[in-house]
Amino acid sequence: MLGEMKAVFSGVQPSGNLTIGNYLGAIKNFGAFSEEYKSFYCVVDLHAITVTQVPAELRRRTYETLALYIACGLDPAKNTLFVQSHVPAHAELGWILDCFTMFGELSRMTQFKDKSAKHAENINAGLFTYPALMAADILLYQTDVVPVGADQKQHLELARDIAQRFNSRFGDVFTVPEPYIAGTGMKIMSLQEPTAKMSKSDENPNAVVRILDPKDDIIRKFRRAVTDSDTVVRFAEGKDGINNLMTIYSCFTGKRLDEIEREFDGRGYGDFKLAVGEACADALAPVQSEFARLMADKAYLESVMRAGAEDAARCAARTLNKVKKKLGFVI
Ligand code: TRP
Description:
The chain has helices at 20-30, 45-48, 55-71, 89-98, 103-107, 110-118, 125-140, 153-170, 215-223, 240-253, 257-263, 269-295, 298-327; strands at residues 6-12, 37-43, 80-83, 145-148, 178-181. By secondary structure, the chain is mainly alpha-helical.
């Protein structure tokens, strides 16, 4: 709890290539939190440098990520949108929590194992302590709920353990956060391998539709989507490809599955795939034009990130001061 209000916090890697899975399963629904929760969305540039970055690209993607979140419906007047490195309290509490996180715990993190296998030339200490910084992000804001993908669940459990460890030693300092696993009800699958989740790092470009893909690409990707040898548009076991396309169509149009079955009764898969592609492209068109408009207005984006950082810093300072006092720092 942050004062009177519950708080929601999520961190977003600065990468502009979010998919329709991220959009439908997560971002599109985040706006709803702001009615009841104090909501923080943070572009995590400190986390990003745990793998090698090209500076100009990191800078561009930081703006892009912020612009994309606003374009997807997160209103800066109702949500605190900011950049992690603009609020030094993250790095400060990150260091402190490093000292309350065990080597053994960090060694068990599957993302660390995966990333160190993938970046064998750069297994740096930041990559190892990444989850303690993530815990700091969350705990600074007395966060109640953290919307994350299933891949972040282990990190969130560690954040809870760290909070509990600190609290049991020093009294109630941190709210213990709950995960909100985004997209469990609305899982969007790969277009090429519909039994696997659509992943933003998939190497097959036809498997993934990105929020910023041009209309032609979207139509083409849906046209090539893997289906089955049946010919009926019907939601049924074993029809993973069609089920996925029906889910996507339903999300973008608001139509129910039985309505979709009726709409395409007696029509082939070709017609259906085209309709899904068009519904997707039409729904994304306003997001894309808003994104383009925002990217052309860097001054506006900078004013959003400044105001966000100011608000975040004020909230973070309260927690950080309490932590320092408990630790015995002279403040
Ligand atoms: N580790 C998260 C990811 O890769 C990003 C992240 C950083 C985060 N800090 C966070 C997510 C705090 C939720 C809360 O997706």
